Amino acid sequence: MEKPSTRTIASNLLVYGSTHALIDASCIAVLFSLLNRTSQDEFFALVIAYNVLAFGLQALIGLEVDRLRKPRSAALAGCVLTASAVFSVAYSPLFSIVLAGVGNALFHVGGGSISLNLTPKKAAAPGIYVAPGALGVTAGVLIGTGGFVAWPFILLLAVACAIIIKVKPPAVDYNQQKAAPGGRHYELVIVLVLLAVMVRSLIGMVVVFPWKTDYSLLMLLTFGVVAGKALGGIIGDRFGWLPVAVATLVLSAPLLAYGSGTPFLAIIGMFLFQATMPITLTAVSNMLPGRPGFAFGLTCLALIIGALPAFTELKTFYSSELLTLSTILITAAALYIALRLYSKNLEQWIG
Fold first, then answer.
1. CB 116 within 8 A of CB 285
2. Are 346 and 289 in contact (CB under 8 A)?
3. Where does a domain end: 146, 166, 186?
């Protein structure tokens, strides 16, 4: 299958990456606009419901998107449902949150499938696609709590739909799944990679940055996360996934465990910590050829499973400095084993 041109790669990343930020900003703004309209318990329940829908549904949606072979249609449906959530939040908060969660999941899977096929088997494009989401989340919190207005989001989402329809997506070779891989260590590698995703999600939720109330520092932290995800795949493709993923995790461990109270150290730590994201995502996708939607959804399912303890009393337990340090280092060791087995067996598994 012909590889996408540089123009195709650039145009799709620009459109889907920026729309990813818009989708996340819209959904989170809808959610946080309810902060002062609901009780603390009700708002907490809505937060859980949104995250379970937005992340937990993606594996199932991915299976269906792969079956129908319609990733762009999924992304468009996600935009429409998200716009519906923005419109309906003033009338029915719960219905709006359901629409936002499902819409978010649809767009993530559709756009994720496309990003995974822009630089086939490489992590650069998926990292750039996912990265703006963090910016969208921060913007959504600030807008939702600072004075939510629906019509700008609806207008921007309509424009995004028009541009998505106009931009030609890359071809996706869904026929690869007929030769699904298997063999020794195959399941182990997938389990270890998904475990690393779960732990990254948990640590990202439980580490406390007391200085985040400062707007300037919050934005620097957000840009650190964005840069880590965007550059992690590019650097990994250039210097090798295994050394980059393991080195960034190991270097981030003391910075996040003992430097979370110092903005400079913590921002560098989060940059390094997030650099593994495109590598783990693309590794799972490469091991599930012809099923980019399911692969993307599977990693997002691992994210929400990993994050769930942070919504319980276990958050305090997991946020201890020594446990944070040891957990990240153990994760680095698991990822080392997984990526070493991956590199030794990938040609045998999928050619």
1. yes
2. no
3. 166
Question: The CATH number of the domain where 183 resides is what?
Answer: 1.20.1250.20
Check: CB of residue 107 under 8 Å from CB of residue 78. Answer: yes
User: What is the C-alpha separation between 65 and 137, in angstroms, rounded?
Assistant: 25
In a domain, 173, yes or no: no
**Residue 306 contacts residue 67 (beta carbons within 8 Å):** no
Longest Cα pair distance anywhere in the chain, in angstroms? 56
Token pair 């795949």 is found at 233
Cβ-proximal residues to 217 (8 Å cutoff; 6+ apart), any chain = 211, 263
Type of residue at 66: D
Q: Which of 227, 23, 232 is nearest to 139 (CA)?
A: 23
Judgement on whether residues 283 and 221 belong to the same structural domain of the protein: yes
Give the number of domains in the chain.
Answer: 2
Q: What is the pLDDT of residues 104-131, one digit of tens each?
A: 999 999 999 999 999 999 999 999 999 9
143, 254: one domain = no
Indicate whether this model's pTM tops 0.85: yes
**DSSP helix/strand/coil, 91:** coil
Residue 111 lies in a domain: yes
Tokens 């959610």 found at: 31
> In this structure, are 187 and 146 located in the same domain?
no
CA distance 179 to 226: 35
Residues 140 and 185 in one domain: no
| Tens-place pLDDT, residues 225-256 | 999 999 999 999 999 999 999 999 999 999 99
Helical residues (DSSP H) of the chain, grouped into ranges? 6-32, 40-56, 58-68, 71-88, 93-116, 124-130, 132-146, 150-166, 186-206, 215-239, 241-258, 263-274, 277-287, 292-307, 314-318, 321-350
Q: Which of 216, 189, 222 lies closest to 336, judged by CA? A: 189
List CB contacts of 314: < 8 A, sequence separation 6 or more: none
Range of the domain at 206: 178-350
Structure tokens at 125: 């494009």
The first and second tokens of residue 320, run together, are 């201890």
Q: Which residues of 2-17 are buried (b: 16+ CB within 10 A; e: fewer)?
A: eebeeebbebbbebbb
Choose among 66, 75, 58: nearest CA to 175.
66
